[in-house]
C-alpha cells in the first residue's frame, strides 16, 4: 500500500526539547547532591481504529508523555516519574526521587553502568516512517480487510473485527556520565479476525501485518483473505489419540520457544535462582548445528538500537552457537549481582535471528511423515524454575508428509531442556513480525494429550 508521510515533521525539534529537559533534570539532580543520575524521556502519538461486521466499533487517538528520573546517593537509589513538564513538577519529581534514595538501604549492585561502556557512535536504522493517516482512511482499510475476508468463503459466518493501528515514539536517555542518546521510531499494523462455521461448529482465526513503515504492510484485502483461509482450515477438527509425536511449531508460535529460553537466561531470573539454566553458560543446550544471533543494527529491525536502556553500546553477538549457550542476557544491575559484565541487554534483546537448517514450511511437512503442526498455543503452563512445559494447543495432524485434518483441545508437554535438544529442524519460513526472527521449529518428539 502507498502511504504518505506528514507534511510537517517536527520530530527533531521535539527530540531536542526532550534532550533539553533531560539535561535540566540532570543538573537539578547534581544540585540536590546525587552522585549519579539518569533520565528517560518519551513521547508517543498514535491512532487506533476497530470495526466489526461492517460497522465502526472504536476510534482512539492518543498522545502520551513520560519523564523518569533515577538518582543515586552512593549506592542508594530512588526513582520518580511525571508527565507534567511544568518547572514546579520537574523540580518536585527530582525532589521525590532524592527523598526515596535517602531512605533506602545501600545496594552493592546499584549505580550506572561504567562510563567506558557508554555508546559513542550514533546509528540510524531507517525506523522513522510516520504515516499521515486520517481516522476515516484507517477505517476504510480496516473495513476493506474485513469485507475481503467475509467475501472469501461462504463458510465465514461472523467476524471478530478488523483494526488498524499507527503510531510514533520519540525517546531520550541521558545520564551523568555525559551520555545522551535519542531515538525515533514508528510502528503500524493491520489485523483481521474471522469466525467460520455455524452453531457449535465454529472456529476463529485471523492474520495481521506489522511493520515500521506503512508501505511494508501487507495489503488489506490479502490480510482479510488469509484470515478467512486460516479460520476455514480449522473447521471440523477430529480427535487426536494421546501419544508421542514429532511437533512442528509454525513460525508465529515457534518464537515463543525462544522467548522461554530468554526468560531462563535473563539476569533477573538467574540472580533470584528462578531459572532451570543457572550455570548453563558454556554448556550444550541444543543440537550442534543450532545458532541464535543478536543483531542490533538491522535496517528496519523491530528492536534495532545503538544503545541499551542504560546507555551501554549494543553489539552483534551470538547467544547460542554450535548448540552451546554462549552467554546470559544481562543489564548492568543483574550483571553486578552475578559477578559478570553487562551484555548491553538492559531493556531486552535487540533482534534475534535463529539460523535455519531446512527448507520452507512445506518441506518440513514432507520430512515429518506423521506428526502434529501447532499453530496456536494457550495457557501459561511453563515453569521457568524447572523447565517443565505444558500448554494447550491446536493445529493439524500430518500424515504422509501433508496436512490431514485440524485438531484442537490438545495439550503438548515436555521439559524445555529435552525439547531444545530434540529440535531437528528450523525452517526458512521466517516470520518478520517480531524482533525474534525464526522459521518453523520441528521438535522430534513430545507428549501430546488428545481427546481419545
From TrEMBL:
GO molecular function: metallopeptidase activity
Residue intervals of the Metalloprotease TldD/E central domain: 129-235
Record domain Metalloprotease TldD/E C-terminal: where: 242-450
Domain Metalloprotease TldD/E N-terminal intervals: 37-101
Domain of life the protein comes from: Bacteria
Gene Ontology BP annotations: proteolysis
Record keywords: Hydrolase, Metalloprotease, Protease
Pfam families for the chain: PmbA_TldD_1st (PF01523), PmbA_TldD_2nd (PF19290), PmbA_TldD_3rd (PF19289)
One cellular component term from this protein's GO annotations in UniProt: cytosol
InterPro entries xref list: Metalloprtase-TldD/E_C, Metalloprtase-TldD/E_cen_dom, Metalloprtase-TldD/E_N, PmbA, TldD/PmbA_N, TldD/PmbA_sf
Family: Belongs to the peptidase U62 family.
NCBIfam families membership: PRK11040.1
Protein name in UniProt: Metalloprotease PmbA
Native organism: Luteimonas granuli
Organism taxonomic ancestry: Bacteria, Pseudomonadati, Pseudomonadota, Gammaproteobacteria, Lysobacterales
Amino acid at each position: 500500500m502507498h502511504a504518505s508521510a506528514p507534511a510537517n515533521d517536527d520530530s527533531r525539534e521535539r527530540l531536542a526539547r526532550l534532550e533539553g529537559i533531560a539535561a535540566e533534570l540532570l543538573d537539578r539532580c547534581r544540585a540536590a547532591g546525587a552522585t549519579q543520575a539518569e533520565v528517560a524521556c518519551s513521547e508517543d502519538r498514535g491512532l487506533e481504529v476497530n470495526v466489526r461486521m461492517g460497522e465502526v466499533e472504536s476510534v482512539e487517538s492518543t498522545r502520551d508523555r513520560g519523564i523518569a528520573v533515577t538518582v543515586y546517593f552512593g549506592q542508594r537509589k530512588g526513582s520518580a516519574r511525571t508527565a507534567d513538564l511544568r518547572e514546579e513538577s520537574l523540580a518536585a519529581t527530582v525532589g521525590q526521587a532524592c527523598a526515596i534514595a535517602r531512605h533506602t538501604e545501600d545496594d552493592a549492585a546499584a549505580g550506572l553502568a561504567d562510563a567506558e561502556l557508554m555508546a559513542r557512535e550514533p546509528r540510524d536504522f531507517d525506523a522513522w516512517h510516520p504515516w499521515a493517516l486520517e481516522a476515516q482512511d484507517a477505517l476504510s482499510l480496516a473495513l476493506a480487510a474485513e469485507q475481503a475476508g467475509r467475501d472469501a468463503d461462504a463458510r465465514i459466518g461472523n467476524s471478530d473485527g478488523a483494526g488498524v493501528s499507527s503510531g510514533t515514539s520519540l525517546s531520550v536517555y541521558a545520564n551523568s556520565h555525559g551520555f545522551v542518546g535519542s531515538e525515533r521510531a514508528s510502528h503500524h499494523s493491520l489485523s483481521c479476525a474471522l469466525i467460520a462455521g455455524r452453531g457449535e461448529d465454529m472456529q476463529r482465526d485471523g492474520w495481521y501485518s506489522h511493520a515500521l513503515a506503512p508501505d511494508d504492510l501487507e495489503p488489506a484485502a490479502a490480510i482479510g483473505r488469509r484470515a478467512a483461509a486460516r479460520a476455514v482450515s480449522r473447521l471440523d477438527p477430529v480427535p487426536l489419540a494421546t501419544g508421542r509425536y514429532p511437533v512442528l511449531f509454525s513460525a508465529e508460535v515457534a518464537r515463543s520457544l525462544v522467548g522461554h529460553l530468554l526468560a531462563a537466561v535473563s539476569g533477573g531470573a538467574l540472580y533470584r535462582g528462578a531459572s532451570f539454566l543457572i550455570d548453563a553458560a558454556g554448556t550444550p543446550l541444543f543440537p550442534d548445528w543450532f545458532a541464535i544471533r543478536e543483531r542490533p543494527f538491522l535496517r528496519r529491525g523491530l528492536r534495532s538500537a545503538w544503545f541499551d536502556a542504560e546507555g551501554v553500546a549494543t553489539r552483534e553477538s551470538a547467544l547460542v552457537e554450535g548448540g552451546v549457550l554462549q552467554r546470559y542476557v544481562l543489564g548492568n544491575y543483574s550483571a553486578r549481582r552475578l559477578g559478570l559484565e553487562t551484555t548491553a541487554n538492559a531493556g531486552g534483546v535487540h533482534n534475534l535471528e535463529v539460523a535455519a537448517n531446512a527448507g520452507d514450511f512445506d518441506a518440513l511437512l514432507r520430512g515429518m511423515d506423521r506428526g502434529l503442526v501447532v499453530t496456536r498455543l494457550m495457557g501459561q503452563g511453563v515453569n521457568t524454575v524447572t523447565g517443565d512445559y505444558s500448554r494447550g494447543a491446536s493445529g493439524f495432524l500430518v500424515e504422509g508428509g501433508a496436512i490431514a485434518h485440524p485438531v484442537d483441545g490438545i495439550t503438548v508437554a515436555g521439559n524445555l531442556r529435552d525439547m531444545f535438544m530434540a529440535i531437528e529442524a528450523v525452517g526458512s519460513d521466517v516470520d518478520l513480525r517480531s524482533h525474534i526472527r525464526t522459521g518453523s521449529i520441528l521438535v522430534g518428539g513430545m507428549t501430546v494429550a488428545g481427546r481419545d
